[in-house]
Every structure is written in structure tokens, then in C-alpha cells.
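In the previous chapter we treated chains in isolation. Here, by contrast, the input contains three separate entities that must be folded as one system, with a combined length of 819 residues.
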Amino acid sequence: MTHKTIKVALIGNPNTGKTSVFNQLTGLRQQVGNYPGITVEKKIGSCKLSENVKATILDLPGTYSLNASSIDENVVIELLMNKNDEYFPDVAVVVTEVENLKRNLLLFTQIKDLEIPTILVINMSDRMAKKGIDLDIPFLEKELKTKIALVSSRKNIGIDSIKNLILNYESLSTEPCLNASVIDVDYFDKLRRAFPNQLLYKLWLVITQDVNFLNLDRNEVQSNFTKSKTELKRLQQKETIKRYQFINDTLKIGQKIDVSKATDIRAKLDRVLTHKFFGYVIFFGILMLIFQSIFNWSSVPMDFIDETFTSLASYAKSHLPAGEFTNLIAEGIIPGIGGIVIFVPQIAFLFLFISVLEESGYMSRVVFLMDKIMRRYGLSGKSVVPLISGTACAIPAIMSARNIENWKERLITILVTPFTTCSARLPVYAILISLIIPDEKILGFFNLQGLTLMVLYLLGFFMAIVSAIILNKVLQFKSKSYFVVEMPSYKIPMFKNVGINVLEKTKAFVFGAGKIILAISIILWFLGSHGPKETFGNAQQIVENEVYSSKLKINPSVIEDNVAAYKLENSYIGIIGRSIEPVIKPLGYDWKIGIAVVTSFAAREVFVGTLATIYSVGNSDDETTIKNKMAAEIKPDGTKIFNFATGVSLLLFYAFAMQCISTLAIVKKETNSWKWPIIQLIFMSGFAYLVALSAYQILK
Amino acid sequence: MKLTLAQLKKGQKGIIADVNIDEIPLKLLEMGCLPGNVVELVQIAPFGDPLYFIFNDSHVAIRLETAKEIEITLENTTN
Amino acid sequence: MNIQEILVYVVLVIAVAFLYQKFFGKKKPKKDCGDDCGCH
């Protein structure tokens, strides 16, 4: 039997539940990657349609029309215009939503003009009764020249009918549903004569858009058929009006709305959630709740993971044949992996909250509520989304700044987002806080450690705002301040969508950042357990000589510890560490912390792993957790290394320093220049150094 | 004086008469901010900006400066 | 050198090579497809 694969592109407006349709169709059989060269997320899934036919489904970024205004939207056009593209669809599935059918159909009519077989999915059909909406499907199918699947992705209704329609896509009509060229008959006639073999609507898109179109010289088309920007926009407006006329005429017959039945919870909720007082109270309440719960809920699994890996390391050491490689496993690889896995609970919780806020539609209300305030600082209300998702990771956060229309607002958002406390800082904060802040409750309610964490988060936001104010003054360029934000209807987040999202993001972290952390741990272990022959190689002898010459009676286990300490100090990493010590000493760090700070420039979360590795090398006692090892570290004078002053200095350094290569790379990509990431690196890290320095000098 | 979207009161409806095409984004047109459509001001954000409208079944918030570029006539139906 | 030491050096080389290509090795973008397109 032959196996056949049908290529499907899933297209639709934002907030139509396109992603839940995708999740229902593909389940966990999805792959998330990037489009080559750009950082737009590319989601591909597969779905079995029948015994021997399967579909490869591409979930395209949400777009309002084929007139692209961002790189995300551009992806849609470039794909649909390019028949040679690997993913050029056999059939397009346009997802619309029953309450916004009129507007959603605009995109549908444009896709139909490209003469690609198109299926119309009308989603959220479970809301029809509540909204008093009635649809005449056969009529709509006839007018729109398509097949319709009435679906509720939430209730998992109608998914099979989508599958059936995809299976039989060859019977779909490819005829456009209206003739848009009537908006300027002469112009389009000329165009048709000049390029008789091309689809008129494609030519029109080439003229109005910034897209590359194979087999056609864009310059040739544009130079002969150019019009002024205003003229083109006027024509686009005419085109839009024309399309809406058709849609309105169609829906007048095909859709009945009984207004008396419609209940609008949206309006009632909006009145409260965007209230000039309660709106803010609710917003800050939600933020508080998120941060308190992240700290409280994840501490249990984190302690468990810490202990598990510690005992795993000691098990490996005692049960594997003794030797170098066993040491690498027990002291390098296992603590290294432990240093990755320990973040999983916090990252999962953060992504869970953010994904719930986005899915429910609440995030748009926050944008609305905060726009005027944020604008005072040179930001946009839409900057709230990057700033909040920056608490998970700056990389997707900076990418989400794309939908800020104004370039200056967008640039400032990109530049200040890394100040927000990302999840990579969390483990560093968590371990330092637990070392220097007592685990007590104040006012019988607030956990002091949780409160400190909250202060650090607020500090991150505060610095982001302060630097935005400065940047707003310094950067002198004008750009139009467009701001359009849709207020979607409120939805109870779907467990499946949230779950898949959290899973994907956590997986991306573990396998992306995780590999780097593991590789660094291995190298660090090697550098920590090897050193120059004359000192490192003869450690045993040198220490013993010292002991004998001091003529004191010292028991053998102390000698053993002294040998280990001497070895570490004279290992390669010890040599590097001591050479940077003069720079970091005024901040209150010893060379071991210094190494951890330096390696953190690859990614902040490396800090804990590095210390874990350094403290494990040659350590006879493998049963102590990282936290206890850190607490036990002492200075030559017998006082604790991780005292209050050093702890605060470290916390502040990590709060402000730009220590993430991946973020710098993404800033370069999004701003298209090295200038901005370099400025970020120098200013943030320089500022961090100064603040940490002052803090330590004042507190010590 | 011409009436614009910026002058609507909360809960008031109007009909879009003309849009200044150079000053408003195409995206807004595509969402249905087109002459002839009914528009309702649903909510004003704290500090008077942005404004939250419904037109063409779209629930959309735009800034005051954009709202000023959209002319309207008031619905002369007796409500 | 015994087998354990050899293994250590092998793992070390892999780790260094991985980090190198992660941070410096991305200079040669593939022309036709990304590394996630499932075509190779």
C-alpha cells in the first residue's frame, strides 16, 4: 500500500483558537523549530487521516490579513506565494471564530484569491447558543466556495470533520469568492496584460508587500506599476471595503444573530478588570500571587532534586570502578545534570502562569491598563508582555516585542527587558537567599525569603523602567506611534494548550541551555582536577612537608582535606581564579565565586552548577548538598564566605549584569546590529559591578 | 468642528465617516475601522488613554492620537 | 594511560567542540534549509 502525505497549512487571525485546533489535530506529535535565518517559531505536527494517508500540518503565525506588518506575518505570505517551498500547502485550513466571523473572513477571502484549495474552520461553535448565533452552513459553503467544518476545539467537537475535509481536499473549489480587481479596473487590466501568466492577486501582493516572489523580478513589476504610498494605501482600503461588502452581503443571509440572547460577560469583566483602581489592584495581586507561589511551591521539588543528585553522585563514586572517568561522572557530569534539572520546577511554574495569563485573554487588558503609564517611560502598553514574560526567559520575551508597532518603543523594550528577573536568575537567588535570609514569617503571613525574592523581582522591573526613562531621553528618533490591540473574549485556559506550552518551553530549556551547562561542567571539572606537575602533581608531598615542618600533631583526615584544598588552589581553575581575584575581591567574592561569576556569562544558571562542581572536586564527603557545602565554606579567618554582605553583593550583581550570550545573540538578530547588544553588555555589567561593589563595602 | 472618535463618551455610539489614511495603520482598516461602520466606545483606560472601541464585531483598543484621525457622525436614531 | 583517562579526554574534547560550535560555529548558515526542517 502506498503512503500518502498531505501538506496542510493552518492559517488564521490571532485569538481564533488556531493553536488549540492544531493541538487537537496533532496532539504531542509536534516539533517546534525556527524558520531558517529568522527567529519566528515554526510549529509542525503530523496527524493520521486514514489507514494510509497522513497530514503534515504547519501552524503558521497568526495574522489579520495577507498585508504583512511584521516578520511573523511575512512568513505566511512568503510561504503561500512560493510554490517551490518545501511546505507549500496542498490545502490551506483557515481557522475562524464564530463570534468574529465577519472579521476573520477577510483573511479567508484573500487566501481564496491565491487559488489554493481552502477549508474554512469555524471554531468555538459551543458558544453559538449562548451568543444567539445561527449559521446557514450550506449557504455559506456555496457563497464562499469552500467546505466548512463547524468545530469546537475546546470540547473536541468536529475535529474529525476537519480531517475528512483535508482527506478530500482535491474536490475543493479553487475559485476566488470575489473579484477584487474592480477597485481600479484600468490599473489591474494593465497589470494583467503585462504578466498574463501570473495570478493577479499575487502581483498585487508583490507590489504592496515586501515579499520575495520567485520567477518574477520584483523591481520590474514595481517600476512599471508603481504608485505613491498613499495611493497604494487608498487602493488597499478600497480592497478591504470591497471584501467587507462581500462578507457582509454573505453573512446577512448566512448568519442570524439574536441579539436578545447574547450575553456579554466580556463587557462586565472588562468593567472590573480595567477599572482605574481595581484594575491595578487585581493586576498587582496576581503578580504577587505568582511570585509567592513560585518560591513556595517549587522549593519542595527543588530540595528533592538536590538531594537525589547528591546521593546519586555518591552512589556512582562508590559503585563504579575507581578511576578518572568515574570521578568525571561523579564530580562533573552528575552535579552538572543536577544543576539543570533543579530549575525545571520553577521554570515550569513560571511558564504555566504566563501561559494562563495569555490564554485567558487577560494579558490584553493589562496592555490596555498600562499603556498610558508605560508611554511616559518611552515604552508601550505592549511592553508589559515582554517585561512579564521576561520573568521566564528574556529570549522569547524579546521576540514578543515584535508586535510593538513603534520602533523606538520596541527598541527600548528590547534593551531593558534583560533587567527583569528571568528564571535563570531564580536558582542563583534561591540558593543565596536561603543562605543569608532567615526562613521566618513576618506579620504571620509573609515568608521573609519569599519577600526578599519579591523585592529582587521589583528591583528588576524598577531598573528596567529607570533605564527606559534614560533611553527615552537619549535616543532621538521619531517614528509613528501606532498602537492597535485586540481585546479578545475571555476564555478559561485549556488544559491541553497550557500543558503542551509548558512542556515545550521546559523541554527547550533542558535541552538547549542544559547542553551548555553540562559541557561547561565537564570542562570545569577537568580544569579543577588537573594542574601543573610541580605544584598540583606533588600536592601530597608539599602539604605533608608543611605539616611536618610545623611539628604539630595533625590527624590524617585533616591532612587529606588540606591536600584537596591545596590541589584545587593549584589546579588550572585555581590559577585562573586567583588571577582574577583582585578584580572581584572588592565585591566580597573569593576566587571560587569568581570562577562561577565568569562562567555565568555563558548563562546565569551555570553559577550553581559551577560552584557544585568546584566544591565537589576532590571532596571526600559526597553526601552533602550544594547548599550545605556553600554554607560550610569559610574564609582563612574562620568566618563564613557566604555572609550577608557577600550574599547581597552577589544578588545585586546577578540582578543587573548582562550575563547571557543567547540574549545578546537574539538582541543582535532583532535589532539587526551589534551596536545594541554591545551597549547592553557594557552598561548592564558595568553598572552591576559598581552596585555590587558599593553594597559590599557598605555592608561588610 | 468635525467630530472624531476621541470625542465620544463612554457607551456612546457613532458611525465612522472618514479616516485619515496617512495616519492610521492598515491593520485597523482591516479590523473593520471603515467608513459606514458603527463604532462604540466601551471603555476609557485610566488617565484617559487608550480608548477601547467595538466596531465590526472587533474589540480593539487604540491610542487617543489615532482616535483623533477618525471622523464620525453621531447616530441620529432616537435611543 | 588507562581506559578511564582516555574516556575523560574524549568527553572533554566533545564538550569543548560542542561549546565552540554553539558560540562560534554558527557563521556558516546553510543555504536552503534550517537544521530543523527534517530534510537531512
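Chain A touches chain C through 25 residues (CB under 8 Å). Chain A has 31 helices and twelve strands. Compare these points with the single-chain example from earlier in the chapter.
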